[in-house]
Amino acid sequence: MPIRVAVRIALVRIGFLLGRLLGRPRRRVLLATSHGTAISGNLAFIRDELAARRPPVPTTVIAYRPESSVRGLLGAALASVRSGFHLASARVSIVDDYFLPMYVAKRPGARYVQVWHASGAFKRFGYSVLDKSFGQTEGFVRRFAIHTNYDVCLVSASRFAPHYAEAFRQPVERFEGSIGIPRTDVLFGERRAAAEGRVRARYPIPDRRTVLYAPTFRGDTVVDARQPDELDLQVLRDVLGEDHVILLRQHPFVRRSSPIDPALAGFVLDVSDHPDIDELRLVSDVLVTDYSSAIYEFSLLDRPMAFFAPDHAAYEGERGFYFDFRSGVPGPVFETSVALAAWLRAGEFDRDRVARFRAEAFDVADGHATERLVDRIVVPALR
């Protein structure tokens, strides 16, 4: 086990022991992530719902992400102690990704919830990637079991539960598909209109067909995440002319991105600083991605998708998928910028393919998932 991981585990244990000194867990909810400097998506929706209850439910937020700098290591050390303390002292703890402190210890009487950060089951993760360069090693998980201590885990459809059960090595009964995914609530009702308004107020999006280009990151860890650079945006500009606009959204793990060529001004808008990709979907007519699970939520909008994946074979070796990539995704797969541009220009989209994908991806999606989660899981645990 790497020394830095052993140190983090020790610090979590110290915090956990301090938290136990407070007595039985308090009526408080911990919302935690180690993949961002602020919570977003599912955790943000849960935070807002808890704040809207009467009386408001007390919450604690812990948000950080790994960095190799001295400052980053010190921040991770402090977050480890805080995480251990609040995992021991809060009655409910909710995470949206791999969160090492949750696997160190479990307090009797506390409830640990994994809401994950994505819908569906697309890219392999957890124990499913032990044989891949992206995952942990067999030796590591023999000494430290990851994805343990969960009491309940959300999935967007019960058909995905076996994949998650394999990835977490947890009983399939712990996976809940009847609640829905909180982050999808933004795609319905008044929330949808308000979110679209926020995006349009923030970015000067012209009245053209709007293409959201949202690739996932490359690299074996979130620390060395990098952006793909195979898509030639100049080719897209030459073919699509003045009646399209590209919204470029790099993955949040990517910390250093290449600047956009000034020659593409007016055709490409960098929206990578927007905290919520779900809101960006609302102003987009077409999604172009590669291996991003954003395809699941986008399918709820009944809009076309395409996949630009010239490195498909390499990514299969690095990460892998839960289904055959080319036949399972809800849109055509392209390996050249010219072919993708021609498809966009033709505008002949297969929405039936998207509809079939959506029907299999969600058991329930109606704008009330966050409310159900709080009512069924959080509130009973706080009594």
What is this structure's SSE topology?
Blueprint lengths: L2 H18 L5 E8 L7 H12 L6 E5 L6 H20 E6 L15 E4 L23 H6 L8 E3 L6 H8 L6 E2 L12 H14 L6 E5 L19 H8 L3 E5 L19 E3 L6 H6 L3 E4 L4 H6 L5 E4 L3 H7 L6 H4 L4 E2 L2 H10 L4 H11 L7 H14 L1
Please tell me about this protein's structure.
- This protein has 383 residues and is an alpha/beta fold.
- 38% of the residues lie in helices and 13% in strands.
- It has 14 helices and 12 strands.
- It has helices spanning 3-20, 41-52, 70-89, 138-143, 161-168, 189-202, 233-240, 277-282, 294-299, 312-318, 325-328, 337-346, 351-361, 369-382, and strands at 26-33, 59-63, 90-95, 111-114, 152-154, 175-176, 209-213, 244-248, 268-270, 286-289, 305-308, 333-334.
- Strand 5 (152-154), helix 5 (161-168) and strand 6 (175-176) form a beta-alpha-beta unit.
- Helix 1 (3-20) runs parallel beside helix 3, helix 2 crosses helix 14 and helix 7 (233-240) runs parallel beside helix 12 (337-346).
